[in-house]
Design goal:
CATH superfamily of the largest domain in chain A: Dipeptide-binding Protein, Domain 1
Strand order of the largest sheet of chain A: 10-11-12-3-13-22-14
Oligomer: heterodimer
Number of helices of chain B: 17
Structural class of chain A: alpha+beta
Largest interface: A-B, 63 and 59 residues
Order of helices and strands of chain B: HHHHHHHHHHHHHHHHH
Largest sheet of chain A: 7 strands, mixed
Number of domains of chain A: 2
Radius of gyration of chain B: 24 Å
Structural class of chain B: mainly alpha
Radius of gyration of chain A: 26 Å
Helix content of chain A: 25-40%
Chain lengths: ~600, ~350
């Protein structure tokens, strides 16, 4: 028995020691190969593509524009760190030839937010990205420019003199993936279905009274009120045009009552019936969406296949990108971007997102007496250390000058951004009678991370900022669903929140003006500020673009001076991709237009 | 025995009703509105869209009414549709359950190694091997699983490039024809060798990481019980009769060790089956744990109810199997039950 024990002890220990040793050695080897990558490739990998609010000057309303892509020129290899470069290098978007149709397969890693792909039902990032590749809209945006709509299915359009009727001429010869031709009847069917299905995205048709198809190539949209954001709205993937013949054959309807009568949901979720460059071939909501080239697409198609994989862990997204298992990592944040510095074969592109993080201070004295005083709100405005938030956001983050983010029409100049001035803040507090400060509850969604920035961190930062002027902020973390309930109830004295554009137009920000949805959450009813309300109302219907932008700017200046919101950060949008992919630019609504990228 | 089985089976529906009621009350006591979770800022401001949504999902009805409707549908085998994704809960669970079963089964098979290791550690009580195994089991049961996962990924995926991470198959490989939902078995049955290789390859890392958490417990329990048994009089008697140590353990100690060990193993299996959110998230494994997490965070009531009922069912069935196994393993229980 003694012998039996001894032999085994020796063998076992030896085997284990060997195993551990080999693991260590192998681990070390792996590290070496990673760090001794050829200098040339490492340098090339760090080149930064700058697309900060890209100013692509692609001519609008010309057919040529539709076939050209605004590809951000990659900065020279000498530009060192991607992060700093992106912020300083001016956006030099040049017009280059569209993707050459190199074929092959593109693999995209992202966190799925979507369970379906029906344009009239889904309102999520993942779905928008897919819809933009499989459904065409009448007009669209190219590259990261979201100020000038260009033709997509429409060839040209006119607006009636009263601004209430839009008439679109469709391009001829465009076909759906089924082979059916795209006609005005399809457009009208898709739009009526969007409206009558009463799904999440139905609100985008709110101002549209009716749609008509006077002839197969003509579509008219009649508005309820004059609204200059109409073209911009029409670019959103919700207005994707579906093949009405195939849709009807599978239970779809566009009639009033479609919210109960439409039986096409399953069908629409599992394939696409559009005219875009790709079509959906498989949809597994937990793991993968497969797209294949639409053989009936008239233009060039960049890839034979696109595979979009659900990669819920962002660190794995980063690693998979480094290993080359995926071509795109769409959800990495500033932290992962830092980790990718110098990674061979990987490009990290940072651009300023169109998301606004803001502090809401309730203006209703019955909810919060101190913040009902504008002097207190202004004091807080001067007390915030804006630079610290830029550090949190990383890369191309900026301090937004107003509630409309830089990058959208009607935004204020960067120079209008708020500045930190503690003395001024303290003086204002004294003037309001709060020299000794006060205690207030600061709510925030504790489980929310947006663009890689945790609300938890921002709340702690805000608490410290407020303490500088003797305001004691009691943190009130809530899970997002509970927080949303309170937030939408409008009874929070102070909260951190965010706003991302539903569509790329300043009119989406009118909600922050007195009496509107967001303002009501801040206890700011209609009539609270007639001057500001008048400006907002005028901006909403002004058709002259220059005047319109100026009206939005004037209204925002007043909002900065007297409103209950402080926009404190416009965070960076990080996109990681393999360096052999080019033509990458970020759109705030559909993220990436895959057909305008290409892979060598 | 048969009578006992029938009695146990008859209890199941009542237990499910109880579970569904508890799940319903708990999920509805969260101070938040599912409409908020389902509708974005654009739709939430439009009363007609909110109304259409509530009517469509029956959220405009009173809570008792909602529960009764749910029970009625459930008794007809209908788990309803998710109010967030609008997909059929049964269909989603039908995809998620086999994925989790496959992973959990692989992990528990690896964890079975814990039984001989635990017994061996007990035999080598306070010797080097014992210390080593105890150290290993301590790490397994105390180190957080996400940390182990990242370390394993760093080593085997990032550095050594020998194992893949994410999803159940390589990109581009189509899943095998659905028979059991286990990709490994299905590809084996259909002779789809590329899918078999790929699915096994993808299973290794998450299964090992997951097994490390259960193997620790199994080792500890096996070791403690063996230690206890080894000092029993009947073993001393057996040894004194001159029977070899190996035979003493195999024939006299093992049967007494197995009963409690089987309980631990099956409970571990149950916990693995009810889903492991972290492991499934890190390895992009489309299983039950992630589905449960998503349903809970989005206040997707039908999803939450569906998951609760399935997990309850899993535990009920496992417990039943364990009780039946006892009878097989322990003659005393066999006589009592019969």
């Amino acid at each position: 028995m003694t012998k039996f024990k001894g032999v085994w002890r020796g063998k076992y220990s030896l085997a284990l020691v060997l195993l551990m040793f080999s693991a260590l050695v192998l681990g070390a080897c792996g590290d070496n190969t990673a760090t001794t990558a050829p200098a040339a490739t490492t340098a090339a990998a760090t080149t930064a593509a700058a697309t900060t609010a890209a100013t692509a000057t692609t001519a609008a309303a010309t057919t040529a524009a539709a076939t050209t892509a605004a590809t951000a020129t990659t900065a020279a290899a000498t530009t060192a760190a991607a992060t700093t470069a992106a912020a300083t290098t001016a956006a030099t978007a040049t017009t280059a030839a569209a993707a050459t149709g190199s074929g092959g397969t593109l693999v995209v890693g992202t966190v799925f937010s979507s369970k379906g792909l029906d344009p009239a039902r889904e309102y999520t990032m993942t779905a928008f990205m897919v819809m933009h590749s499989v459904y065409q809209t009448l007009v669209t945006y190219v590259g990261s420019d979201v100020t000038k709509p260009v033709p997509d299915l429409a060839e040209s359009w006119t607006v009636s003199s009263d601004g209430k009727t839009y008439t679109f001429k469709l391009k001829s010869g465009v076909k759906f993936s089924s082979g059916n031709p795209v006609t005005s009847a399809d457009v009208v069917f898709s739009y009526n279905r969007l409206k009558n299905l009463k799904g999440q995205p139905a609100f985008v048709t709110d101002n549209m009274a009716s749609f008509a198809a006077p002839d197969p190539q003509t579509v008219t949209i009649t508005l309820k009120d004059v609204s200059p954001d109409t073209l911009s709205l029409l670019t959103t993937p919700s207005f994707g045009v579906i093949d009405s013949v195939t849709a009807k054959a599978n239970g779809a309807t566009d009639a009033v009552g479609a919210d109960t009568a439409d039986k096409s949901e399953d069908f629409m979720n599992n394939q696409s019936i559009g005219s875009g460059p790709f079509k959906v071939t498989a949809f597994k909501p937990e793991s993968e969406i497969d797209l294949a080239k639409n053989p009936n697409y008239a233009g060039t198609v960049a890839y034979d296949n696109i595979i979009i994989k659900n990669t819920p862990d962002v660190n794995i997204q980063k690693t998979s990108l480094e290993k080359g298992d995926i071509d795109f990592a769409l959800d990495i944040g500033p932290e992962q971007a830092d980790g990718l510095k110098g990674a061979a074969g990987v490009t990290v592109q940072q651009s300023t997102s169109l998301i606004i993080f803001f502090l809401l201070m309730n203006a209703d004295a019955s909810v919060s007496a101190p913040t009902a005083k504008n002097d207190v709100r202004q004091a807080i405005r001067y007390a915030i250390n804006y630079k610290d938030y830029i550090d949190l956001g990383g890369g191309s983050s900026i301090t937004p000058p107003g509630i409309i983010p830089i990058g959208l029409a009607g935004a204020l100049d960067k120079g209008d951004a708020p500045v930190t001035d503690l003395q001024k803040a303290k003086d204002l507090m004294a003037k309001a009678g709060y020299a000794n400060g006060f205690t207030i509850k600061l709510s925030y969604p504790s489980d929310l991370t947006q663009n890689g920035v945790k609300f938890e961190t921002m709340a702690q930062k805000m608490q410290a900022d407020l303490a500088q002027i003797n305001i004691t902020a009691e943190l009130d973390p809530k899970t997002i669903q509970v927080w949303l309930d309170e937030y939408r109830g409008g009874k929070q004295p102070m909260t951190l929140s965010l706003w991302g554009p539903d569509y790329n137009d300043p009119s989406d920000y009118l909600t922050f003006f007195p009496g509107q949805k967001l303002a009501l959450r801040a206890g700011w009813p209609a009539g609270a500020d007639p001057e500001m309300e008048a400006l907002a109302a005028k901006a909403k219907v002004e058709l002259n673009e220059t005047t319109r932008e100026s009206l939005y700017q004037q209204a925002q200046k007043l909002l900065n001076e007297r409103g209950p919101f402080i926009p404190y950060l416009q965070p960076s949008q990080v996109i990681g991709f393999r360096s052999n992919v080019s033509g990458v630019s970020v759109n705030p609504v559909w993220v990436i237009d895959f057909n305008r990228t290409s892979k060598k | 025995m048969t009578q006992y089985l029938i009695r146990r089976l008859l209890l199941i529906p009542f237990m499910l009703v109880g579970i569904s009621l508890i799940a319903f009350i708990l999920s509805h006591s969260v101070p938040a509105d599912p409409v908020n979770a389902a509708l974005g800022e654009g739709a939430i401001g439009k009363p007609d869209l909110v109304r259409a949504y509530k009517e469509h999902w029956g959220l405009d009805k009173s809570l008792p009414e909602q529960y009764l409707v749910y029970l009625w549908n459930l008794s007809h085998g209908d788990l309803g549709n998710s109010i967030i994704s609008r997909r059929s809960v049964a269909e989603d669970l039908g995809d998620a359950i086999p994925a989790t079963f496959e992973l959990a089964t692989a992990a528990i098979l690896i964890s079975l190694l814990g039984v001989p290791l635990g017994i061996w550690a007990a035999i080598r009580h306070r010797k080097f091997a014992d210390g080593l195994i105890r150290f290993f089991s301590l790490i397994g049961s105390s180190v957080p699983v996400f940390w182990l996962a990242y370390i394993a990924i760093f080593l085997f995926y990032t550095n050594l490039s020998i194992l893949p991470v994410g999803d159940r198959l390589d990109t581009g490989i189509k899943p095998p024809t659905h028979i059991t939902g286990f990709y490994t078995l299905d590809s084996l049955f259909t002779g789809n060798w590329s899918a078999l290789g790929s699915s096994l390859h993808h299973l290794v890392l998450p299964a090992i990481v997951l097994s490390l958490t259960t193997i620790g417990t199994i080792i500890r329990v096996s070791r403690t019980i063996t230690l206890d048994v080894l000092h029993q009089d009947y073993l001393r008697t057996a040894r004194s009769k001159g029977i070899k140590e190996l035979a003493v353990i195999a024939r006299h100690a093992l049967p007494n060790i197995l009963v409690p060990v089987v309980t631990v193993i099956s409970l571990s299996y149950g916990s693995l089956l009810s889903g492991t959110v972290l492991t499934e998230t890190i390895f992009s494994w489309p299983g039950l744990g992630r589905y449960a997490f998503q349903s809970a965070t989005k206040l997707d009531f039908p999803g939450i109810m569906g998951v609760s009922i399935v997990i309850a069912l899993i535990y009920i069935i496992i417990n039943l199997i364990v009780d039946l196994l006892y009878a097989v393993l322990d003659p005393r229980i066999r006589t009592k039950a019969a």
